Predict the structure.
Amino acid sequence: MIFFSLNKKSFINSGLLGNATDIHSHVLPGIDDGIKTYEEAVKSLQWLKNNGISRMFLTPHIMSEFPKNNHEFILNKFDIFKKRLEEDGIGDIPELKVGAEYMLEPAFEKHKDGQLLTYSNRYVLVETSYMMPPVGFISILEKLMEDGYSPVLAHPERYTYMDINDYKNLKTQGILFQLNFLSMAGAYGRYAKDKALWILKEGHYNFAGSDFHHLARHERNFSVNSLTKKQIIALEGLFYNNQKLW
């Protein structure tokens, strides 16, 4: 068992994070359930840069739980944050762009009628409740695609209501999948890890993101020796796709 573990690598020593682009994070401070303070955000960004992340999309939640969060509010907060970083002379952090993670719920229609925060003016990061899909889940995704968007489903491995057939059906319909890459290290429990392993093996993932909320969790899980050589090769493709979104 010890020998088997030694043949695996962590995200830090796998080379995956070298010059990497992270497309999913909650580092914009004081805006959702992620980083709370400016100081904590700076510390986290410097740690991420030190561990290889060169570019990051900051993607706050847009959902009814955070009623202020919309396109205009988030852009304003992002501009204020970047200006303060510049005024303080903060260096050695990743390049930053802003996006959002949209909860597919009734309020989503209101946001969709406005201007969505996207990757490359097309790709939209979306999520659902972990326990159940929204009413009209497939119809919402289809309408997004009809409107010219490409839905990117965040962390599909974490949805307890989804099974293998659900994943296959979503991929058939053209839905893109974003792995929370720390699922591979067991950060969200064995169930999410097992599903992530299957989805990765089947080649269903398109992108990978940290879903960074709190530094302590990532400090711990970036160092877990959990990745086989085959998994590292598969993950390299996802990080390559991340860069194309920048």
Summary: The mean pLDDT is 95. The chain has one domain: 2-245. The longest strand covers residues 53-58. The beta strands are 20-22, 53-58, 61-62, 95-98, 101-103, 123-127, 150-154, 176-180, 207-209.
